[in-house]
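Submission checklist for the structure archive. All mandatory fields must be present; incomplete records are returned to the submitter.

[x] Identifier: Transcriptional regulator
[x] Organism: Pulveribacter suum
[x] Residue count: 91
[x] Sequence attached
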Amino acid sequence: MPALALAILRELAQPGLQDGLALPALSKRLGLGASAVLRQLSALGDAPLGGGQRGPGWVHVWQDQGRWRVALTAEGRAWCAQALPPCPPTA
């Protein structure tokens, strides 16, 4: 799995983010542009990319009052709980 995908999953698995995070805030936490983060989010979601296979469906991206938001799905939360080692919250 790409390092960026793991970093995104770790950020979204932080306590208190069950309702998601604004895409610009996630991008800032990762130190990357929103377009790079959005590309990786697309691969972690469940939409088929370019007519290909669907991703694992671990993230959900939606628009809320004109702002893009992202959150883990139930499947993503379960995967993170099993696969990601506990790490301290990021600032």
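[x] Structure attached
Curator remark: The chain has one domain: 3-83. The mean pLDDT is 87.
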